[in-house]
Design a protein that fits this description.
This protein is an all-alpha fold. It has a single domain, classed as ABC transporter involved in vitamin B12 uptake, BtuC (Orthogonal Bundle). It is built from 14 helices and no strands. Helix 3 runs parallel beside helix 8. The radius of gyration is 22 Å and the shape is globular.
Length: about 350
């Protein structure tokens, strides 16, 4: 028997089970699509391999069934590239959904609020001013992302930080960092500019397991932290005043979530460059797939990995004879998706 004005307990349980089934179905679908994309990335190329040969190469370290040519192509060239796309895309996806959820704005992602542009400015300075390369450029990008995040947060502080003010200041800082990049280009040699532009586009070329180790470690540490901090988001989504009334430590929770998001974006950018719009599109796509089914954290990571691997496949094999960096395709996809989001918001009366 139910209390007047409240849904029966059986109805609530049925709705919860239906949402859980939808969540499980979405996760399974994304996992299958991601595995299929990885399979295509490992099998297709200038030297195509049947799927059975790919599986044999993947198992060869354990079975001892070695075939040097096929194993080198799969394990030495294609697998590190696919893993780079999966890890970097997952980190960008997690970072993007954290930013968008904390700031309560689907347009708020590391691309938009200046984090990746800060990383880009310091990386370009490392290449052009200090003539650095490799790991030094990656570390400088990581430092730049953290520094600009601290500047944005500090400038946004006024008896607390409001999401609206943080986004606006982030956009301004992104413009400043972009101006620094443009200035450095005017003072650089052509060769250095070409190298910097190649890094700014974002690419999976030259990926290696050793190079990806810091990113894998960052994901291993930060993903559980993000999952724990995610619980406070339900209160933050209701607004600061309501969250405080419910006992949530608003500024501490927001700062923790932003720090995790910045570190994820910094680690991914350091590994593969500022691959455009992956962080921006992952959260909204995951939420549309889930509907009201709940936590978009892990689905966003899978969407980010799938978008990155799929875009790299398109860039390598489906645009004629020219192979392009993955950032070219993700940038085009993200721009179209941004237009779609703005059009959808306008149709629903939220577009201004």
């Amino acid at each position: 028997m139910s209390t007047t004005g409240f849904a029966p307990v059986g109805t609530v349980v049925a709705v919860r089970r239906r949402l859980q089934r939808r969540y499980a179905l979405v996760m399974a679908l994304l996992a299958v699509l991601t595995l299929a994309a990885i399979g295509l990335a490992l099998a297709v190329g200038d030297y195509p391999l049947p799927l059975a040969e790919v599986v044999r190469s993947l198992l060869s370290p354990f079975t001892g069934n070695v075939e040097p040519a096929g194993d080198f192509i799969v394990l030495g060239v294609r697998l590190p590239r696919a893993v780079a796309g999966l890890l970097a895309g997952g980190a960008f996806g997690l970072s993007g959904v954290l930013f968008q959820s904390v700031l309560r704005n689907p347009l708020a992602s590391p691309d938009i609020v200046g984090i990746t542009m800060g990383a880009s400015a310091t990386a370009v300075a490392a290449i052009i001013v200090f003539d650095w390369s490799g790991t030094a450029v990656s570390l400088s990008a990581c430092v730049g992302a953290v520094v600009i995040a601290l500047l944005i947060y500090g400038l946004s502080w006024r008896n607390g930080v409001t999401p609206y003010r943080l986004v606006l200041i982030g956009i301004g800082m992104s413009a400043i960092a972009g101006a620094v990049v443009s200035y450095l280009f005017t003072r650089a040699r052509i060769f250095d500019v070409q190298e910097a532009l190649a890094w700014l586009t974002g690419s999976l070329n030259g990926a290696s397991f050793e190079h990806l180790a810091p990113l894998a470690l960052a994901l291993l540490v930060l993903t559980p932290v993000a999952a724990v901090l995610w619980r406070s988001l339900n209160a933050l989504q209701l607004g600061d005043d309501t969250a405080k009334a419910l006992g949530t430590r608003v500024e501490l929770s927001r700062l923790g979530l932003i720090i995790v998001a910045v570190l994820l974006a910094a680690a991914a950018t350091a590994a593969v460059g500022p691959v455009a719009f992956v962080a921006f599109v992952s959260g909204p796509i995951a939420r549309r797939l889930l509907g009201p089914a709940g936590n978009a954290l892990l689905p966003s990571a899978l969407v980010g990995g799938l978008v990155t691997i799929g875009s790299d496949f398109v860039a390598q094999h489906m645009l004629g004879r020219n192979q392009l960096p993955v950032g070219v395709v993700t940038g085009a996809f993200g721009a179209v998706f941004l237009i779609y989001l703005l059009a959808a918001a306008h149709r629903s009366g939220r577009g201004g």
